[in-house]
Amino acid sequence: MLFRLLIVLPVLAVALFLYGAIVSIGYIEENRCRMTYMFEHPQYTRLPVQGNERFPKYGLYAYSEGFVTQRVQQRLFTGAPVLFVPGSGGSYKQVRSLASVALRKGLDNNWQAHLDYFSVDLNEELSGVYGGYLQDQTDFLDLCIQEITRLYGARGRTTRLFIVGHSVGGKLAQAVVGARTSIGRHVAGIVTLSAPVDKPVALFDHYHYSFYDRIEQAWRTNRSLAGAANASPSHGLLPLDGILFVTIGGGIRDIIVHDGLTASRYADLHAMTHNIPNVWLSVDHLCAMWCLQFVLVMNRFLFSMIVPQGRGSWGFVEGKQHQLELATRFLAQPFRSDDDDDDDEGNNHKRLPAGSAKQPLIQHHPEQEDWIEDIRRSFTERHRAGIDRTRVQMIRLVPEKLAHRFVRIEVINSEQSNWLSGCAAVEVYGNSRMCQKAISLTNYTLPVPSSKFDRFGALLDLHELKRANPRWTHVLVKIPRTTKPVQFSVDVFNPDERAINVTMPHWFDYRARTILQDASPDDSYYRISVSGMTHTYQTIALDLTAVACDGVRGTVVVKVHVPWATGYDRYAFHEELNQTTVYIYPPIEKPPAGEPDVPIQLDVHLTPGCKYRIRYAQSLRVSMARMVQQHVVLIPAHLVALLLLAFKDQLTQTPADDPAFVVGKLRSSLTKPGPLLMLLATGSLTAKFLALFKAIPPTETVATPLAVSILVHLVALGVLVLATLALWGAIAFCANFAHKIILRLIALPIPVMSSTFLSCIHKFPLAIAVLLVAIALTACGGVSLLCAAAVYFVLLSKAYEDYLENFVFNTARKIAARLFGARERPHGEGSRAGRKRNRRRTANETGDELMVINFHLPLFLLVILLALLNVPSVITWAKNYHYANTLQPDPSLVPALAVLVCLAVLWQLNTPRNVCGYELLSALLVIGAFVSVLYCQVHVYRLNYLLALVFVAITVHQIIAPKRREVGEGGEQEEEADDGKETVEGVEQAEHEEEETGDKKAN
Fold it and tell me: Alpha-carbon torsion 375, 377, 383, 387, what sign?
């Protein structure tokens, strides 16, 4: 039963992980981005760069369309410069969406305020998975900045540029100003789009690690953490404090760089596309460069900083504080501050002081306005044909009643920015109370997501306003006259009646719970507090269903505020849907030092006139998708750890007093609960114990949640079980087919040479290993590892063929003995060599060839893992083959050479040898398994060197370990007596056979 459970659970975990991968690819949220189109054919003019002879693969281009191309070819640049840096595998042509919209805007301005877009060609190198080119790309980007500065300096201008970096391009922009602080005087700001800023997605080689480490050290030395928002070069602070640094993430649709990696401790502002006004949606990794909603907002932000610089030239405004204010206006909620005081209900809004003289004044003209005070607490006014007179809706301040404490106000298509104000309505005009002047409350208003209308809302604490302004009597909502459809709603309520508290269900609880049944049609706002959500994989599906509507098609807006994640507030909105599902999750892990009971706040804005039912349940599909997005990189380390522990179990099958060494089966060792329980039970304890010693490097398992560790363990175990079964099937049934495939892969003009080469694999593996080493030195270490895996499979299939031949031969001999009466020798009889083979063969083994396969099967899987880890190097080598035959630098070379030399010895020797010391080797394998889990989950490249050390240890053991003593004391005399007895019995049997032959001849 336990064996079946250990098979079913890993396979189920693999199925769940694959399900999460499928969901994360395209079934979480639809892509609602609109395409960006060019009005004319885009033109990319290559610009010469001084020093480009060092980097012939790279280039610098200027974007243009139509007649503007002639100005670019003449090097006439008069706009504010923007440099676009593509990401991993990205093209310089990806600038066209941003540049084309900016060019159209410049033409609409009669080519007054405009932007000049430049783009860097980095040869579409996969710098996200191969870090060997990151330093070259940084150096070339430095040259490009200097060249752009010279282009503008030729006309007597000194201008600073903005760098927009996508993905790894954002990290390159951060690196170029950190490597040389002098280049920072030419850079006004950096905007990163879906970039892994402080942490990489995965560390596949040590070049990535050293690159990020150098940038971190440079920015830590030259950039302030606290107070960076107010820094400028004139203040005499650190050199990089004067550069505006904005980071932007894509949200849940970005499955390559998840949202937790897009923020930086050095950023002046962090924003997510689903919280940027007029974008309001999540974008995938590539969509960030062409999503029209985001492209428009990005260009509006850049255009807002353009100032004239004389001679018809334009540049970016100086002063980081002003730039930051503009960035906050366009890329974040413009009137929201993280320093605001929280009131008793946890509402975060700016409070007006008692004297509000600093607030803008609004002048009213009662002769042109209708002043209306409604006694209803909650109502909605719709004017589909517009209104012919300005309307001022008055909301009374009633401080002594809880039912009149909060008000939620929302206006649609209001053409006035200062639509919300407060005053003391003590004057009288006609039959209405009014006030000539009111104080603006615009700092309380926030835009509300909508793709069809201009929609704004405000949530006010009326009692707090009354205490801050005792003379006030009303809050005013001013709707100017218009011919457009206009709507406003007012909802006055007691906040205690609209607050709902829920708790995150347990990991095994997926029941749906109703938290609101048939809400009143006048209710437009609810606040839901979710406690118990601390990990990023925890997800709640919030279902909002419109039970009945009064002829309106509603829009549901949910704002998600995570207290410990600054800049990650998220708006989710769905228009004209009767049922809406919003997924709630923490974008980053809750800090361990934070308060454990701080809930996630959900502000739910409903459509007035509809009755809603709200339900929630834990979402398995999105939870699995989030796990896949954030923790798939942990699987290789767990694969190696489980495989090493299973190999250790295979090597410890032989009892201590047994003279013959036996290797167990890999499948049986994998399905034992020991390795899995050992890692789960002692991995975290070992990490906490090692954390007590400052001299020991910090481990990587403390921050991983236990549920994630268990799932990753099970997924790794399931992958190994399925891979082992598939490999046995391939060896058993596809060996001949694999031979044919390899013959075609190595096909030479002369067929005899092809067959000779294949026979060399079988008979002279040492020569093949030497050839693989030559491939590693002349091409790429990853290529040689892939070839080594293919050769290893051929050798295993040949060993299995030998095993089958012996098995068939022995079976046929037994059948012949039974059919023809041939006498079989009893067990224990026969030659000395035969008794030795019987002594080495145990009850669960059928032959020496099968034991050889059992020994080499885990090693073959380790070679496959090592080859897969170095596939990025292989792809990079193949992509740049026409530039260089050898990959330089090659992070896979040293591990590949070490493993290939070891394989040459292991293939040539008759392994496994019947030697001592397997106990010590098993201990080393256990240590390697724990090192893999403790230090190689994030730093994946360390697995290369760990596996190389494992192969070196196994090879050295097979070479230098002494042979086992096959018999005990007095064993030689016993063997000699057995040999004498066998000789006598053989002579007697021969004489008996001669006598029988003579009798037959006489007859």
Answer: positive
Q: Which helix (H) or strand (E) holds 479?
A: strand 474-479
Tell me whether the CATH fold assigned to 42-224+240-306 matches the one assigned to 498-619.
no
Closest of 534, 675, 663, 670 to residue 591, by C-alpha: 534
CA–CA dist 118, 50 (Å, integer): 16
More confident residue, 303 or 999: 303
617 contacts: CB under 8 Å, gap ≥ 6: 505, 510, 511, 512, 513, 540, 541, 543
Answer whether CATH 2.60.120.260 is correct for domain 498-619: no
State the average pLDDT for the chain.
83
**What pLDDT sits at residue 701?**
64
Check residue 452 and report its DSSP letter.
S
**Domain range 361-495, CATH class:** mainly beta
Nearest to 130 by CA among 780, 882, 898: 780
What does 335-374 look like in DSSP terms, one character per residue?
A: T--TTPPB-TT--B-PPPPS--TTSPEEE--GGGEEEEE-
Distance CA 472, CA 211 (A): 59
What pLDDT band is residue 835 in, cutting at 50, 70 and 90?
Answer: very low
Query: Quick one: 40 exposed, middle or buried, by C-beta within 10 A (0-12, 13-18, 19+)?
Result: middle
Which residues, 6+ apart, have CB-to-CB distance to 914 below 8 Å? 660, 661, 840, 963, 964, 966
Residues 747-760 as b/e (b if ≥16 CB within 10 A, e otherwise) read eeeeeeebeebbee
- The secondary element (H helix, E strand) that includes residue 433 is strand 432-434
Q: What are 661-704's pLDDT values in tens digits?
A: 888 888 888 888 776 677 766 666 676 667 666 667 777 765 67
Q: What is the pLDDT of residue 38?
A: 83
* Element containing residue 658 per DSSP (H, E): none
Alpha carbon distance 573, 579 (integer Å): 12
Token representation of residue 425: 């309505």
pLDDT in tens, 199-247: 999 899 999 999 999 999 999 999 988 444 444 444 457 889 999 999 9
| Integer Cα distance of 99 and 127 in angstroms | 24
Q: pLDDT category, 611, cuts 50, 70, 90?
A: confident
CA distances from 940 to 31, 129, 414, 639, 723 (A): 32, 11, 55, 12, 21
What is d(CA 544, CA 408) in angstroms, rounded to the nearest whole number?
Answer: 19
Looking up tokens 């050889």, which residue turns up?
852
In CATH, 42-224+240-306 is 3.40.50.1820: yes
What is d(CA 739, CA 737) in angstroms, rounded to the nearest whole number?
Answer: 5
Beta strand 525-531 pairing with 499-503: parallel
pLDDT single digits (tens) 514-566 = 998 877 888 889 999 999 998 999 999 999 988 877 666 667 899 999 999 88
- Three-state secondary structure call for residue 825: coil
pLDDT band at 749 (very low <50, low <70, confident <90, very high): low
Are 234 and 530 in contact by the 8 Å Cβ rule? The answer is no
Structure tokens at 535: 């990990």
For residue 246, which of 315, 314, 323 has the smallest C-alpha distance?
A: 323
Predicted confidence (pLDDT) per residue in 97-146, tens digit: 999 999 999 998 888 899 999 999 999 999 999 999 999 999 999 999 99
pTM, to two decimals: 0.86
Q: Is-contact 357 328, C-beta < 8 A?
A: no
Sketch the domain layout of the chain as residue ranges: 42-224+240-306, 361-495, 498-619, 633-744+755-814+846-960
Task: Give dist(CA 332, CA 322) in Å, integer.
Answer: 15
- SS3 at position 481: coil
Does residue 715 sit in helix, strand or coil? helix
> Encoding tokens for residue 537?
């994989």
